[in-house]
Amino acid sequence: MVSRMRAVWSGTLGFGLVNIPVKLYSAVSSKTISFKLLHSECKTPIKLVRKCEKCKKELGWNEILHGLDLGEGFITFSHEELKKLAPRGEKIIEIKEFIDPTTINPLLHDKNYYLIPEKNTKAFFLLSEILSLTNMAAVAKFIMRQKEYTALIRSYQKALLLTTLHYENEVRPLDQFEILKTEVKFSEDEKKLAKNFVEMLTSKKFDPKKYRDTYLDQLRAVIENRAPTPKQEEKEDDLMHLLKISIEKTKKPKKARR
Question: What is each CA distance from 4 to 7, 24, 107, in whole angstroms?
């Protein structure tokens, strides 16, 4: 299966003094349906253009700058300037420390990737085994697509699961919501009823197969109904029959004898 998947990153995993050749693969794939925007009259796909509202003309990439609005005008950067400022470094996922993964704020979790060795490396499977036995996770740093990431690495079945993390200053604080500062008290009866409700709907474990994207299911059904029916191939017998009739019709009538 991996051979059909495209790696999003390749390099090495730094485990102590050991460097393990690895690749990253997206652990999930979106199942949404993408639509193209069409002209309602002729059903032709429309083109989204980069247009300057002042000059009233379409622009090419060589005419575009990156601008940051600070309130009193734009600070501009060219493509080349931003490219030079992008982080650079060796293609290595460097483990910095080991932690209890339950101590990480779940809001910091971003995207999940399978971390797969390029070859049968004992050190890779040893790391996965130790993380599983100790219920610990590794915190690592690496660069991917000109961006520096902090990541959490955990044991997942026979592989490693790498989860990129948001930085702390990217998490919005809850103290901006004034309504949450209100003190609310509950009676014992209210808490008892709420607890009973939770117990009624409690399952032993989460089963993802119980839940589906019903909108996507309905959309697929409509698409299937609207899709043109493929032409059925004519059977050989039917084709032979039609060819014989065609030949008979095209035969010139014989002249009558005198």
Answer: 10, 14, 32
- CA of 27: how far to CAs of 6, 10, 98, 103, 236, in Å? 11, 15, 22, 23, 48
What is the H or E stretch that residue 132 is in? helix 122-134
pTM of the model: 0.75
Mean pLDDT across the stretch 19-29? 94
d(CA 143, CA 123): 22
pLDDT, position 1:
45
Vertex 105 angle, CA 104 and 111, to 5°: 85
**All structural domains of the chain:** 2-29+87-170 (2.40.290.10)
- In this structure, of 93-97, 139-143, 204-208, 222-226, the range with the lowest mean pLDDT score is 222-226
Q: What is the pLDDT of residue 245?
A: 74
| Rounded Cα gap, residues 135 and 155, in angstroms | 8
The Cα-based distances of 67 to 103, 116, 193 in angstroms read 39, 39, 56
The predicted model gives 128-140 an average pLDDT of 96
